[in-house]
Fold DUF5640 domain-containing protein.
Amino acid sequence: MARVHDNKAANYRTNGISKLTIAICVVVIIIVILAFTNPSRTDFYTWLESEHGIHVSYDVNEGTTYTHITNGQERSLNFRSGHIQHVGIFTTYNETFMDVEGNEINIKATGVMNMFFKR
């Protein structure tokens, strides 16, 4: 009787779905979800305004302009440098601005699943 039980277990493993296959499918599904929910540059600009009060606008004649709103006052910012690294399942942003007084504002964030986290 023990031999019949062993054969059923062996047949299930060869004909059924193995734990490794299920694990690989779960990992692939997670990677696809992360890739599709990787936030865009526009999402970053929206987060930048809500989190740091920096508004980004674009005009054909003037180009991209940055304004910083603090204590109800709007100040112009100059974009100094920036780096964006798209990894597929997440994106990192590092941007530096300078205000009119010469103070640098450095923003570092990681975007994943349509959310941003400060670094």
Observations:
- The beta strands are 54-59, 63-70, 73-86, 91-98, 104-112, 115-118.
- The CA atoms of residues 4 and 118 lie 59 Å apart.
